[in-house]
Write a structure and sequence with these properties.
Blueprint (H helix, E strand, L loop, with lengths): L12 E5 L21 H11 L4 E4 L4 H8 L6 E3 L4 E3 L5 E3 L6 H13 L4 E5 L2 E5 L7 H14 L3 E6 L2 E6 L4 H9 L8 E6 L5 H8 L4 E5 L8 E3 L2 H18 L1
Parallel strand pairs: 1-2, 1-10, 2-3, 10-11, 11-12
Antiparallel strand pairs: 3-4, 4-5, 6-7, 7-9, 8-9
Helix pairs in contact: 1-7, 3-4, 5-6
Length: about 250
């Protein structure tokens, strides 16, 4: 389905954006992403035009999102919804399962292969293999096995990463929570993401009269597509320019 028939309406829509692979290009390591120079200004303009109905929904902790998007402090859901900051600035944290047993089960594999990296989060654990793609199957099997032995977690497979996340949180539920609150309530939800981890969010917005945009290739429930983060930035800039012309 073409995005041309779904022009973004800043007065009526609520925009939810994934971070890695969506707002910014993927990087070899989580700490080496580089936001585009105009990203902060663009997000600030969207926030102002939409009366604050803009949120970032990511697998990263909210604290990391704030670091990359400073000086903005947007409404945000981190760790796939395990933590969420609403539009008033209040931080809501769901109970986080202990990841120490997962780390113990994966430590030997990571120690044996320097190209692998464990990324501990509150209530989640990611195993990155972007620097060792030949170890994909070994990482999938190791994380699946660990999750099957430690209660409270769900297995997620992403782009060059496998992750154990808290079973009680997902991006769809995070978006649903935002949509029950001002300034999101009553608007049409729009979610943009790039990965399997975003599918719960795609499913939720499309079942609530919104639309979803998948960034990049791969199977997805999303009913629309853009090629890459640069294409998303272009689409948002076009929406901003169209809004400016109407003012």
């Amino acid at each position: 389905m073409s995005l041309q028939t779904h022009e973004y309406d800043f007065a009526a829509d609520a925009l939810f954006l994934d971070f890695d692979g969506t707002l910014v290009n993927l990087a070899p390591e989580p700490g080496s992403v580089v936001p585009a120079p105009d990203l902060i200004d663009m997000l600030q303009r969207i926030q102002e035009l939409s009366n604050g109905a803009l949120a970032v929904v990511s697998g990263r902790p909210v604290e990391q999102l704030d670091h990359y998007l400073a000086p903005l402090r947007l409404p945000a859901a981190g760790v796939h919804g395990l933590e969420r900051r609403d539009a008033t600035g209040r931080l809501i944290q769901l109970p986080a399962p202990d990841t120490s047993r997962l780390m113990e089960r994966l430590a030997t594999l990571v120690a044996r292969h320097p190209g692998l990296m464990l990324e501990p989060k509150r209530g989640a654990l990611a195993l990155h293999y972007r620097k060792a793609p030949h170890l994909e199957q070994a990482c999938i099997e190791a994380m699946n096995h660990a999750v099957s032995r430690v209660r409270g977690f769900t297995f997620l497979r992403g782009k060059m990463v496998v992750e154990a996340k808290a079973a009680l949180a997902d991006k769809g539920e995070a978006i649903a929570s935002f949509m029950r609150e001002a300034p999101f309530a009553g608007r049409r939800p729009v979610f943009v993401g790039d990965d399997v981890t975003d599918e719960a969010g795609f499913d939720w917005v499309q079942s609530h009269e919104g639309f979803a945009i998948k960034i990049g290739e791969g199977p997805s429930k999303a009913n629309m597509r853009l090629d890459n983060p640069a294409a998303l930035h272009q689409w948002l800039e076009q929406a901003l320019n169209a809004s400016d012309r109407r003012l």
